[in-house]
Amino acid sequence: MNITAPYLLFLGDATDKLSIKMAQGVADWRPDLCVGQLRLPGCEVSTNLPDMSIQDAHAKGAKTFVLGFANSGGTIDPSWVPYIIEALNAGLNIVSGLHDKLTDIAEIRQAAAAKGLQLIDIRHPQQKFKTANGVSRSGKRLLTVGTDCSVGKMYTSLALEKAMKQHGFDVDFRATGQCGILIAGSGVAIDCVVADFIAGASESLSPANEPLHWDIIEGQGSLSHPAFAGVSLGLLHGAQPDALVICHALGRSSMRGLSHCLPPSISDTIAMNLAAAKLTNPDCSIAGIAINTSSVDEEEALLICERITAEFKLPCVDPLRHGVDMIIERLS
């Protein structure tokens, strides 16, 4: 999938900050790709980008109208259709990360066809993938993996890419989820790929490259999560990572969405992920540990990271609070 910037981010009538993660992610990491946001009456959240109309955004060069939210069930509310049609009539492509397909709504499909514009349903990849072959390929790859879902794998990956570029690395962020694809402008929604082709899609996402080039591959799910371990394993095998960064969020008493499942230890997470990764890259190693410490204050966050660093003899940081230079120092 390839998405044309700049974007106008449509927040609809969202009231929950977490529901606009699509929009917030790109506003945080690629504000240069955005001209502004469009909010409807009743919207109680913001990306802190300028509010503007579709016509104003078009005048400022917007090329794509992004449905920047994820509601319960991933549905396209009929009340949003007139705004999507207005954006198409203004010459903007449309991007959605919802489960409902833009292309399934006749009015939207016909308006896009009449204007020769793209309807991009990020969660529904159209490309054909081959099964993985496990053949070693040139270039270097780092994959973020987690003790659970939603522990900061995307933000850690983006922090690594940003800092590595500042340090002069030849590096690219490879997106595997709808938010990451919007931020990167391309990628594969890996959790929507048929199971047999997940590893093959991962191979195609990070193909052979120059020997010193790094691909930072956004992780998905967790090997310890009963619902999403399959996509995590496929990514591990297809990515052939040279390095893993273990991502963890403080304060979890159970796996996300599964109150009966205890989260794994960092030690068990390291062992499981290394064992799986070594199937396709026997030289894979752990580069560091990234902790989401947002639930504690700065002083406690530093103490926790120092303790984990001492325990595992690996750099442990909160990427947003402390940066990732300590992890980058282990990459060559």
UniProtKB/TrEMBL annotation:
Domain D-glutamate N-acetyltransferase-like N-terminal: 41-125
Domain D-glutamate N-acetyltransferase-like C-terminal per the UniProt entry, residue ranges: 132-327
PANTHER family documented for this protein: DUF1611 DOMAIN-CONTAINING PROTEIN, GLL3100 PROTEIN
Protein's name in the database: EBNA-1 nuclear protein
Organism: Shewanella piezotolerans (strain WP3 / JCM 13877)
